[in-house]
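>> Question from a student workshop board

For tomorrow's exercise we were told to take the sequence and the ligand below, predict the bound structure, and bring the output to class. My setup keeps failing. Could a helper post the expected result so I can at least see what it should look like? The ligand is Z2T.
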Amino acid sequence: VTGPQFEPTHERALTPAVGPARDVDGFVRQFLRELNYTQGVPLSRSTLNDQYLALARTVRHYLMQGWIRTGKRRRDAGDKVIGYLSAEYLLGRQLDNALLAAGLEDIAREAMKECGLDVDLLRSQEIEPGLGNGGLGRLAACFVDSLATMDVSCIGYGIRYEYGIFKQTFEDGRQVEVPDSWLALGSPWEFPQPDRAVQIDFGGHTERYTGDDGRERTRWVPAWDVQAVPYHLLVPGYRNGVVNTLRLWSAKATNAFDLQLFNQGDYAEAVRAQTFAENITKVLYPEDSTPQGRELRLQQQYFFVAASIKDFIRHTLPADFDLHRLPERIAFQLNDTHPVIAIPELMRILVDEHDFEWDEAWDVTKQCFDYTCHTLLPEALEVWPVDLLGRLLPRHLEIVYRLNEDFLARVREQFDGDEVRARRMSMVQENPVRAIRMAHLATVAATKVNGVAELHSQLLRDKVLPDFSEMWPDKFTNVTNGVTPRRFVRIANPGMSELVTEAIGEGWLTDLERLRELEPFADDAAFRERFRAVKAGNKERLRQLLHHRDGIDLPEGHLLDVMVKRLHEYKRQSLKLLHVVSLYQRLLSDEVDPESTTPRTVVFGAKAAPGYFMAKETIALINAVAATIDADERVAGRLAIAFPANYNVTLAETLIPAADLSEQISLAGKEASGTGNMKFALNGALTIGTDDGANVEIRQLVGDDNFFLFGMTEPRVAELQAKGYVPGDVYASSPRLKSAIDFLASGEATGGDPSRAAAVVDDLLSSDRFMALADFDAYVEAQEKVEATYADTEAWTRSAILNVARSGFFSSDRSMRDYLDRIWNVSARS
Ligand code: Z2T
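>> Workshop helper replied:
Here is what the output should look like for this input. Compare the format with yours to find the bug.
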C-alpha cells in the first residue's frame, strides 16, 4: 500500500470540483442523479430508503468542496492537529446536522416537495450511527462538532464498529438486546479508503539484536496481523465552510495471513482466520462504566490507536518530517483509558523503528499526550492483566515495565525511598492478579490530566490520584463538559430556537453565553406565554412520536418528569422508582384529594449493560410498575409512567425539549459530570438533582431558586460510608420509605407479583451501595417543592427561561476553548 505516487501539479488537480448549484433546481438535479445513477432506480420505483440515501448523498455533495478546501488549507499551514483518540463516537443522525451546517434546510425541503416527497419523512429513515455507549461517546461527538465550528484542525480517530450499541427491546418487560445493523441499508456518510490501509501486528515475541552501529536494540517479531482500513466521515462546522474529518478504522484480514494457511491446504482454517481478524471491529462493547477485561477489547484498543498513529505519521505529516518535532504537529487527547496503549506504541515506534534514544523518545512522547478521566468508580478504572497484554503485545509490556521502573525510581528519589507510596503509584498492580493500571500509565505520560466537571476534577486530585497530584500539582486541571447547541438546541428544539432568535437576534448558536440576553424576557408575560406554547408544542411532538414509535399514549397536560441515561445503580433509577411508588400510594390513600395533586408523567429511558444483573432487574421492575399503574383506573389522569425502549440520541432530541423536570439524582461523588443535565437545562427544564458532577455548576449558574437541590453532599457520603451505612436503619426510621418499600415488596406495585421486585428490594435493604434509601426523604421533600412550584405556572416558566438564559456556559464550544487554552496551547480561528 502506497501513498500518493506523484505531486499533482496540473491546475485542475488542485481545484476541488464545483458542487451542485445551491438552489432548489440544483438540489433536485443532484438528487435525481443520485437516485438514478448511484441508487440505480427511477423516482417512480424508489423506496423510502432509496430516497433517503439519495438525499443524504446529495447533501454530502455540498460538503465536499469544504472538506477538500479545509484539508488543503490545513496541510499548507502545517497546523498543529488535535488527534482526538476515542473508542466511541455516539454521533446521532447525520442528515439533520449536515443540512443545518450547510444551511440547506429550506432548499432541501423545497426540492423534495418538487419531487413529491416529504423531507421530514426521509429524515426519519436514518438509522443513527450508535458507535458509543453514552456520555463519553456523545461527548466526543460534541467536541468534534465544536472544533469544526471553531475552525480548529482536528482528526477524530476511532473505530468503525459494524454493530454499534445494541438495540433494546422489551419482552415481558425485560431487556432483550438486538444487534444494531446500522450499515445494512447503506451508509451514505462514509468514504472507505482501502488503499490507505495499514498493517497492525499482534502477538509473537521480542528479540535483542545488535544494530549496524553497534547499539543494542529490540525488535518485535509479531505472530499475526490484520489490515486497518480507514473510513472517513465528514464533520461539518456550522455554516463556516469548514469540514473536518473523523477517521474510523475497520479490520480486514491480511491476504498473506489467509494465503499461508490456504497453501497448507486448510481452506476452512483460512476462512476462520479471516473471520477472526474481522471480529476486531465487529461490535462495540456495551459496558458503559464497568469494562470487562476481554482480550478482544484490548485488540480493539490497540488496533485503532496503532492505525491512527501510523496513519498520522505516514499520511498526514510531510514525508521527511523529523519526529523530534512531533509535539509541534500533534496533540493526542486520550478519551479515558481506552486509547492509552498509544503511549507505549509511540515509544516503540520512536525507539525501535526510528532509532531514538530511550530518554529522547520519552521526552517526545510525554509532550504528545493529554488524558481525560471520566469516572470516579474504582471498578471503571481499566487494568490489563500482564499475561494477556504480554501475549498480545509483548513489546508494549516490556516498554511499560521499563517506563514504570524509571518512574518508580523518581518516586523513591523524591519521596525518600517511600516504598509504600511507590507501590501505590506503580503502573503495575500485583493483586488480585498482576496487571497494568492504565490510568497510572496515562497520568505519568500525559502533559495534562483533566476531569470533566469541577467536583469531579477535585475528587480526582484528592481521592483517585492523590499521590500523583501531590507529585505534579500543575498537571491536573478541570475542563467542564459541554454539549453542542447545534444538535441539542437548534435541531432538537426549532420552536425555542426561533423564539430565542426573535428575542435576542442571531449569533447565539455559536456564542451561547449570549443566551444571557434572554434574562429580562423571564419577566415578560407575553414572552412567557410564547415560551410555554413552544414547550406545549414540543410535548405534542413527543406524544406523536411515542404513539407511532412505541404505541405509548402520553396523557396531556401533565408535568413531564424525565430520567434518561444509562441504567446504573449509582445513577439511582431505583430512587426515582421508589418515588413513583410513593406517589402511587398517595393517590390510592385517602390522605390527599387526587384533584389537588399535580398530574405527572414519568418517562424513563435507559439501556443496561447486557451482563449487569441488577440493572436489568431494575428495568424489569420499572416496566412492571409502569404496567400496573397504567392499568389502574383509579390513578388515570393523575400518574403515568412511560418507558420507551431503545433510548438513543434520536429519541433524546425529541424527548429532552418536551421535558419539564430533569432527573439528575446520582449519589454525590459518583457522576463524573453528566451531560444530559446540561441538555435539559438548555431546553428549559428545571433540574431536581444532587450536589454531584456538573449539577453543582448548573445550580451555581441558574441559581438556587431555579434548581431543586436535595440529598447528601459528597463529604457527608464519605462520612456515612466510613462510619458504616446500614440501609435497614434508614428503612426502619422513615415511615414513607418503609411504606413504599413494603408496597413494592408485597407485589402490589407489580401486578400482584412480588417476585418482580425481589432482587431490587433485597439489594436496597441489604447493601444499597449507592445509598438510595438515605436520600429518599430528602428527595420526596424536594419533589413536593417541585409540585408547589409547578402549580404556579408563571413562576415555573420564569425559572425555565432563566435556566435557558444562564446555561450558555455548557456549550461544548466553551469546553473546546478551555482545552485549546489550557491543554493543547492552540488558538482557535473563531
Ligand atoms: C461514560 O459514558 C462515562 C464515563 C466512563 O468512565 C465511561 C463511559 Cl462509557 C470510564 C461518562 C460519565 O459517567 C459521565 O458522568 C460523563 O458526563 C461522561 O462520561 C462524559 O464525560
